[in-house]
Specification:
The protein is of the alpha/beta class. It is built from six helices and five strands; from the N terminus they run E-H-E-H-E-H-E-H-E-H-H. Helix 2 links the parallel strand 2 and strand 3. The relative contact order is 0.20.
Length: 168
């Protein structure tokens, strides 16, 4: 039986922590769909539009043959069902993530009982990385080259100007 999982997020931008989760999860599922949310929550203010986030994620995740990057602008469970997926993959960086992620998993299970949520933790060297921190450091002129793929570094440099150049 083929198992498809969906890893949703805004991926604004995709980080090495995201890549780590994708690399490890791609070994457990026949197909892993990285679902880039087109409409972030009201508390999020994306630095990159949906097309750019999808383009960057596709470039970064190209090495993984069973991984597909797709945009979505619907209720997550509707997207998951439309893709024939049975699993939602979520990352947990810290205990502080758990309460919110538990609520989401419970709501999704109420909406679509046949879809399970699976949690993975990032490798320790990525546990503190978040897209919002990467954006903030980059916008303030810090070097984020250790936290993102070079193409993402370049996109951040274009977005925030020369402030986010890597230290050579």
């Amino acid at each position: 039986m083929s198992v498809t999982a969906v890893y949703p997020g805004t991926f604004d931008p995709v980080t090495n922590g995201h890549s780590d989760l994708v690399e490890r999860a791609s070994k457990f599922f026949d197909c892993l769909i990285v679902a880039v949310a087109g409409y972030p929550s009201p508390s999020k203010h994306p630095a990159f539009d949906l097309d750019e986030r999808v383009r960057l994620a596709r470039h970064v995740l190209k090495p993984y043959e069973n991984v597909e990057v797709m945009p979505f602008e619907s209720l997550l469970v509707d997207f998951v069902e439309a893709q024939g997926a049975r699993v939602i993959l979520r990352g947990l960086r810290a205990v502080s993530d758990f309460e919110y992620e538990f609520q989401l998993a419970s709501m999704n299970r109420q909406l679509v009982p046949k879809v399970e949520t699976v949690f993975l933790t990032p490798a320790e060297q990525y546990s503190y990385i978040s897209s919002s921190l990467v954006r903030e450091v980059s916008a303030l002129g810090g070097d984020v080259s250790r936290f993102v793929h070079p193409c993402v570094q370049e996109a951040l440099s274009r977005r925030y100007g020369s402030a986010s150049k890597s230290a050579d």
